[in-house]
Specification:
It is a single chain. A seven-stranded parallel beta sheet has the order 3-2-1-4-5-6-7, sandwiched between helices. With about 425 residues, it is of the alpha/beta class. The two termini are about 40 Å apart. It contains 20 helices and 14 strands.
C-alpha cells in the first residue's frame, strides 16, 4: 500500500464514520471526541514546562495492558508527565478520568499535518504504543524527530501484511520503532525473518496487571456476606447464550451460590436475566444488612467495575463470550488460582488455548457438559486442587514483562531528568 492509497483509505474512513454517526452512538462519540481536539491539546499542554511521555492505546484492552508500565514509569520518573491517547471511544470514554496520568485525549486522525501539529504540542521525550495500532504519519514523524519509540506486548502473525511480498509500506512503519517488546517467540521469529533485530520476547504485561490486582485485593462486604461458607460459581462477562446454559447448573446444584456479572448491563438485558433466574437479587438493591444475602442463591451484578474482584470469591469461574464472538478476559479469573470454564469460541485467544493445554481451562459446548464439569470439580477434590494450582502457576510463571521494559528504558537512558 502506498502513502497515497493509505491516505485515500483514511479519507474514506472519515466519510464513513460521519455517515455512521447519524445513527451509531460509537461513531458519534468518535467524531465528537475529536472536535476541536488541537485547541484542547493546546489549552492543556502548550504552557507546560515538564517533560512528557506519550502512551497510545487503541482501546480499553490495550490500556489495561499498558497500565503496569504507565504506573511504574509514573512512580520512577515523577518529573515526567504522561499523556494517554485512545483511538476508540470504548477506551477513552471509560478511562478519560483515569487519575494516575496527567492527560487523556483521543488521538487526532492520522495525517502528515496532524502528526506534526500533535508532536509540536506534546513534544514527548518517549513514545510507547501498546500492542498494535500502526499509524503511518505519526510513526514516521516520530522517527524524523529521533523520538525513542517503543511497542510493548506486541503480537505478530504470519498472515499480516508485514510478512507478505506486498508489505513494503507496512514494513516501513515497523522500521520507525526503536525497540519491540513482543509477547512470544513466534512474534520474535517473524520480525527477525524480515531483518528486524531490535526485538525481545518480554512477555505480556497483562500478567503483571492482573497479579497486581490480586495482590492489592480489597474485600467487597456485600459479596462476602452473600457467599458465606457456600461453594460459589462466578460467571463473568456473560451473554444470553451463556446465561441459558448456566441456568441448568443453577437448578442442578441448589446448594451452590451463583454470582452473575453480565457483559452488557442495561435494562433490557437485566430483565431477560431476571426472567431466567426469577429468584435472583440485584447487587444495587442490597445493603450489608439485607437478610436476602443469606437466603438467596443468585446475585446479579448490575454495574461495572467489580468483576476483577468477584473472581476472588469463586469456587469455580465461568468466563462468558464463548457462545458469541469470542471469550472475554480469562486472566482476571485465573490469577486467583481457580478452574476456568468457557464456551467453544476460544481458539483465537492465546491464553485460553494455553490454559486448556495447562489443564486449568475447560471448554464446554452445552449445558449438559457444563453441569457435568461442575459436578466433577465439586466431587473430586484432587482434580479440583490440581486445576487450581495449574491456574495459579499459569500467571506466576508469566509475570515480569513490565520490569523488562523498565530496565531497557533505564539502561538506555531514554528518560533523563
Amino acid at each position: 500500500m502506498t502513502v497515497f492509497l493509505y491516505n485515500i483509505f483514511l479519507f474514506l474512513f472519515r466519510v464513513g464514520t460521519r455517515i455512521a454517526a447519524l445513527w451509531n452512538k460509537k461513531a458519534k462519540l468518535w467524531l465528537y471526541g475529536r472536535k476541536d481536539i488541537f485547541e484542547q491539546l493546546n489549552s492543556e499542554l502548550r504552557n507546560q514546562n515538564s517533560k512528557s511521555i506519550w502512551f497510545h492505546c487503541s482501546s480499553l484492552g490495550e490500556f489495561e495492558q499498558g497500565r503496569p508500565v504507565m504506573e511504574k514509569i509514573k512512580a520512577q520518573y515523577p518529573n515526567f508527565k504522561i499523556l494517554i491517547t485512545f483511538f476508540s471511544p470504548s477506551g477513552y470514554e471509560i478511562r478519560k478520568n483515569y487519575n494516575n496520568t496527567d492527560w487523556v485525549f483521543y488521538l487526532p486522525m492520522d495525517s502528515a499535518t496532524n502528526a506534526k501539529r500533535f508532536l509540536d504540542i506534546v513534544h514527548p521525550s518517549l513514545v510507547i504504543f501498546v500492542k498494535y495500532d500502526y499509524w503511518y504519519n505519526y510513526l514516521t514523524e516520530c522517527k524524523k524527530r529521533n523520538i525513542p519509540l517503543l511497542i510493548i506486548s506486541a503480537l505478530f502473525r504470519k498472515g499480516q501484511p508485514f510478512f507478505k511480498w506486498y508489505g513494503n509500506f507496512h514494513r516501513k512503519m515497523l522500521s520507525c520503532f526503536t525497540y519491540f517488546f513482543v509477547q512470544d517467540e513466534n512474534s520474535e521469529s517473524l520480525l527477525k525473518s524480515i531483518n528486524i533485530e531490535n526485538v525481545l520476547k518480554a512477555g505480556d504485561t497483562r500478567f503483571d496487571r492482573v497479579a497486581g490486582i490480586a495482590a492489592s485485593f480489597q474485600p467487597v462486604e456485600i459479596i462476602e456476606k452473600f457467599c458465606g461458607t457456600s461453594k460459589v460459581l462466578v460467571a463473568g462477562s456473560t451473554w444470553p447464550a451463556d446465561e441459558k446454559i448456566i441456568r441448568k447448573v443453577h437448578t442442578s446444584f441448589p446448594d451452590i451460590k451463583l454470582i452473575l456479572a453480565p457483559h452488557v448491563v442495561n435494562e433490557k438485558h437485566l430483565d431477560k436475566i431476571k426472567k431466567l433466574f426469577p429468584n435472583s437479587i440485584f447487587f444495587s438493591e442490597l445493603t450489608t444488612h439485607d437478610s436476602r444475602l443469606m437466603t438467596n442463591k443468585c446475585l446479579i451484578i448490575d454495574n461495572i467495575g467489580l468483576l476483577s474482584r468477584l473472581y476472588h470469591y469463586a469456587t469455580i469461574a465461568y468466563v462468558g463470550g464463548g457462545f458469541n464472538k469470542g471469550i472475554h478476559n480469562t486472566l482476571e479469573a485465573v490469577v486467583y488460582g481457580k478452574p476456568i470454564i468457557f464456551g467453544p469460541e476460544y481458539k483465537k485467544f492465546k491464553e485460553a488455548v494455553e490454559l486448556i493445554k495447562k489443564g486449568s481451562g475447560i471448554c464446554v459446548n452445552n449445558s449438559s457438559e457444563l453441569t457435568s464439569i461442575v459436578g466433577l470439580l465439586l466431587k473430586n477434590k484432587e482434580e479440583y486442587e490440581l486445576k487450581c494450582k495449574n491456574s495459579f502457576d499459569f500467571v506466576q510463571q508469566r509475570k515480569g514483562a513490565t520490569d523488562v521494559i523498565i530496565n531497557y528504558i533505564q539502561e538506555n537512558r531514554l528518560l533523563t531528568n
